[in-house]
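Dissemination and training. As part of the outreach component of the grant, students in the summer workshop were shown how a complex can be specified as a set of sequence lines and then modelled as a single object. The example used during the hands-on session is reproduced here so that future cohorts can follow it. Participants entered these lines:
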Amino acid sequence: MAVILITGGARSGKSKRAETRTRAFPGQPVYVATAEALDAEMDARIAKHRARRGTDWIEREVPLDLVSALVATDGGGARLVDCLTLWLSNLMHAERDWDREVTELAAALPHLASPVVFVTNEVGLGIVPDNALARSFRDAAGIMNQTIAATADEVEFVVAGLPMKLK
Amino acid sequence: MAVILITGGARSGKSKRAETRTRAFPGQPVYVATAEALDAEMDARIAKHRARRGTDWIEREVPLDLVSALVATDGGGARLVDCLTLWLSNLMHAERDWDREVTELAAALPHLASPVVFVTNEVGLGIVPDNALARSFRDAAGIMNQTIAATADEVEFVVAGLPMKLK
Amino acid sequence: MAVILITGGARSGKSKRAETRTRAFPGQPVYVATAEALDAEMDARIAKHRARRGTDWIEREVPLDLVSALVATDGGGARLVDCLTLWLSNLMHAERDWDREVTELAAALPHLASPVVFVTNEVGLGIVPDNALARSFRDAAGIMNQTIAATADEVEFVVAGLPMKLK
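and obtained this result:
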């Protein structure tokens, strides 16, 4: 078992780095997309990611039930979960108890046999947002990132496509 | 004398890291809160921080006069100042000369006997804010962080709860 | 030939660091400003930067045609380009094909004889901006930073005035 967390800003090269780390494990890689193609902007981004990573991935769309998906795909190749911040946003929109779900995810990780590579975003390094919802989200994202980082075997922070090893 | 600066984004684990560093010094630790409990959101955050760090701290509320507070509490255990960005915000709201006060703080640090651990925020890594006040604040925060970092013995940048050594 | 990319947040000490790196090369340094003095806020910032770096620099204002300017000033001292994110913003306002221009810049770098030190900004580490234009800009800035970082010989990330070596 190996759990790797790749964090960074928007368009920092996180996904590409995570793909490289995922492909380095043996077996057919599994792409766990937390995005749903709900608008044209998101459609275009999903298509671009797919074009880059190639067609040899097993693909799963998992907006909410991440732990079940990781259990269901366990035993094969490494899973790339892209990305945790979108999963968190989905949980909040669905009015699920994100705090409990993050804790359950962290608790489930040590019991998995196949590797998991998570992509997440750093969203707390700008000016305090004006609206309370955005503040809640960045607080939640920070807590989630700390929680998963504490459990992960490796954590990398990507800036301008270049990884810094945090753990 | 030891001066340590812990910087990072919102909910990055800065305060927890700073508590660990402060407790590692001998003597009863002193918590210097720059926050004032002015609304429910702030109340809740203060209560949460207090619950985590325990009740064995001497507590001081110091929204503005930080240098005096550090001189007054000198000679005992290490001081944890949480946080400099809120102090800066308080100075600006009170229409004090923040630039001069930051310079005076940096100048006072080498004359203190007991350690000081500062928490601060990185706020300049997002998109340029629309309003001029927010731009002024992030400029001021960046200048303050550079000034204190230049004087500090150690500087750490915390991401997802994990410190990177900058100095 | 040496290409150095200095990245970081607003008021992180990037420009100062880049000046130090540029001055370390032999010859008269060339300051390539991508800023145009269009308003009082920008005027003040330009004047402050100029006061700090001294008067022994050759100065060029290059809001758009960066590759030509680097070719035209080649063969002398090192060039400091401050900064790439403003250049990108200028290209977008002028409705030029920024993607192609960034690719051309990266392709031109290995053919230059004199060193180039670039300053750029990390703008993708805050909350997702509300407006589509800001989102496009931060995506473009991230892609540009990755592209130039991939070509650069050295990349540094500056936080609180302190550089971390990324490459």
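The mean pLDDT of chain A is 95. Students were then asked to discuss how this feature might be tested experimentally.
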